[in-house]
Specification:
It is a single chain. The protein is an alpha+beta fold and 524 residues long. It is built from 20 helices and 8 strands. 42% of the residues lie in helices and 9% in strands. The chain starts with a strand and ends in a 7-residue tail after the last helix.
Length: 524
């Protein structure tokens, strides 16, 4: 059974021992070579399909073009290696073996940290891949780009990759369950650095001490404020998890070379918890698998049917339903007010409780509109659908009837929906709420939704068929049909892919797709 580990701040003179530190316990979990179950393996495959789908849909977008140009400025040059294994590393590669890591869309390899950077931006840009919400927010699929890049670079097998990804998801989900970052205005990728480092540690079979040092360095270098998701949200929103991925790979590299990290990184009197989180009196209970216990946290996570912040998923589905049942709601002249009664998180992060005027600005960036539930609910209510490009288009946001209705939509915190949001019971955990629509003629329409249709408990839960459908839909018109089929065949054979075969998990786009995006110049 998962064990709860107490975590608090320690004064230096208390001399907290290594094996009592959270980073060391994370490393112990990562170093435990427990078998991966078939259901976890299947879900890892689903999430690789999911990540690749949303990355393909982003290939021509500006942030991806910029990140891709940076990555290709750091190509990996194959060099002979000695046969001497690196300290703490059970994986070595033959002298002269072609190394480096692939970049979505192109047939050019980069150094693994830069490939993870480019691919991480592509995966996150549309805010369209998986999520886990508890004490903190997260997109656990962000673990896949750095772990896959490291796996390709080191010539690992599909089975190695599956084990590494299972660890990345496990550690991130466990941290998200226990430690809130957003409450202290720290960006949620501070949990990603340690989880990605741990996943790479599992992938490479590193020892506990090496993973411990890598986890500490990864955390130390990936703490930043939540201003990246506040106010006028910039293109950095997509880059933030990619940066954490890049730092995780570099942290592992340094640790493998014998370099050490701040200790204790979480619990120290000048550490992350004491000065960035709940302070010197903090107390957490962090759940982690016991030795020999399978890493199954990926099964607690859920993906998106719609390209929008996860807390908007259920609201889009409810808006589509209301559009069909009450078409008159699309007309702002017939609506007096719309109030979304929802959880604390939804109200204060993507709702009117954030007090961000940009959430009502038709000229706001896509990144900002993606975090505006008043906008998202309005457009889904009027259109009866959601599209990852069209629903955010400037001409769509600027429609006068949309602006008029949008200004009438507000959110309100509801204690019961907040309780359900934080519930540890998956049968009652909810991310939706109740809508009250007051009409100009005096009538009131109310409805509610607990989880998105694509959620495991929703009306149309996602399974392999839906993941493949999402990939085909987003890849159509971007990839050649033969490349779509090749990728889907390859990824579904993941457990049987041998050493050096993981490059086939990349997808190649026609040159015209990449050329259309351009390659902006910078320092490199």
């Amino acid at each position: 059974m998962v064990k709860e580990h107490p975590v608090r701040v320690y004064r230096s003179e208390e001399n907290l021992q290594r094996d009592d530190q959270l980073a060391y316990k994370i490393a112990q979990v990562a170093a435990d070579s427990v078998a991966v179950g078939d259901d976890v393996t299947d879900m890892v495959i689903n999430r690789i399909i999911d990540n690749t789908a949303v990355a393909v849909a982003s290939l021509a977008r500006g942030p991806i073009a910029a990140a891709r140009a940076q990555a290709t400025s750091h190509p990996f040059i194959t060099r002979p290696l000695t046969s001497q294994a690196r300290p703490g590393n059970s994986v070595d590669v033959a002298p002269g073996q072609r190394l480096g890591s692939t970049i979505y869309g192109i047939d050019t390899k980069a150094s693994p940290e830069w490939a993870a950077w480019a691919n991480g931006v592509a995966v996150r840009e549309l805010d369209y891949h998986d999520t886990f919400l508890a004490a903190e927010y997260s997109h656990p699929g962000d673990n896949i780009p750095p772990i896959l890049a490291a796996a390709q670079h080191k010539g690992c097998t599909g089975a190695d990759l599956i084990r590494g990804i299972a660890t990345g998801y496990e550690i991130q989900v466990d941290l998200v369950k226990a430690i809130s970052l957003h409450k202290h205005k720290i960006d949620h990728v501070a949990h990603l650095g340690p989880s990605a480092a741990a996943g790479i540690g599992t992938l490479l079979g590193l020892n506990v001490e090496t993973i411990f040092q890598a986890v500490g360095q990864a955390l130390h270098t990936t703490t930043a404020t939540r201003q990246s998701r506040k106010g006028e949200i910039s293109t950095w929103k997509a880059h933030a998890p990619a940066f954490a991925s890049k730092m995780a790979i570099e942290a592992v590299d340094r640790a493998m070379r014998g370099q050490t990290s701040p200790v204790p990184i979480y619990e120290g009197e000048d550490g992350v918890i004491a000065w960035m989180l709940d302070g010197p009196d903090a107390a957490y209970q962090v759940p982690l698998p016991e030795n020999g216990e399978a890493k199954r946290a990926i099964l607690d996570t859920y993906t998106k049917e719609h390209s929008a912040e996860y807390q908007a998923q259920a609201w889009i589905d409810l808006a589509r339903k209301l559009h069909s049942e009450h078409p008159e709601l699309a007309d702002p002249d017939q609506v007096a007010s719309v109030v979304l009664h929802t959880s604390h998180h939804t109200h204060y992060v993507i709702g009117s409780g954030a007090n961000d005027p940009q959430k009502y600005d038709p000229k706001a960036s896509r990144e900002t509109l993606d975090h505006s539930i008043p906008y998202i609910f309005t457009v889904a209510l009027q259109d009866g659908q959601w599209h990852h490009v069209g629903s955010y288009a400037s001409e769509r946001a600027g429609r006068p009837d949309t602006i008029a209705l949008w200004q009438k939509v507000t959110t309100a915190e509801d204690a019961e929906w907040t309780r359900r949001y934080h519930s540890l019971d998956p049968q009652e955990k909810a991310f939706g709420g109740r809508v009250e629509i007051a009409l100009a003629d005096g009538r009131t329409i109310t409805d509610e939704i607990a989880v998105a249709d694509a959620h495991p408990l929703g009306a149309r839960p996602f399974a392999r068929q839906e993941y493949i459908g999402k990939f085909r839909s987003l890849a159509e018109g971007v990839l050649d049909p033969a490349e779509i089929e090749r990728f889907l065949d390859t990824v579904q054979r993941l457990p049987r892919l041998g050493a050096g075969e993981l490059d086939a998990l990349n997808v190649l786009a026609p040159a015209a797709v990449i050329e259309a995006a351009g390659a902006p110049h910078g320092l490199f």
